[in-house]
Write a structure and sequence with these properties.
188 residues, two-stranded parallel ribbon, globular, Transglutaminase-like_Cys_pept
Amino acid sequence: MIRHALRMLAMMYCVCGQPAYSNYESQAVTPPLSFSQFCIQYPDDCQRHDDRRIRDFRSSIQRWRELAQINSTVNFGIAPKDPPASRRDAEWQIFPYEGNCGDYAVTKRHLLLRSGWPSSALLLAEVVIRATGEHHLVLLVREGRALLVLDNLSPVVTPLIDALDRFTIVRAESGTDPRRWTREVAAF
């Protein structure tokens, strides 16, 4: 009963939370239903977070190491599991024992937010894997002038330009508002 109510609230957010027409961002799209449900369960992870990293003491090499460590820790810390047909990707969770691509991506984003990274640099992105046509969720990270991909299907952090031969971006968080999704990832 509670799950049904949460799904209905999430659906209402998707339908009512997005304007029919927006001059502000012409490519705005409805976020995935799973994201809306995630925001109900983890509201703090869906709020705007400013940059709290100490810039003087953290070189770009240290930030790269942090990204690689979190990517690796989460990739090995969550056992891969195909969701049951009834669940599909509808319920993303932080730190599940076993999970799917959505669980990996939101856990990585959660850890980076807690490490002081700004929400504008951490963009969840729905992609289509070219080889299979399967929809998949990854975390895009803006670091300096680079846009990097943290993916549970890859043991290494990859520049987006190198990952685009494996997948196509369908929609992603906008960077200006964690609850707003767009068809394109904004350039710098």
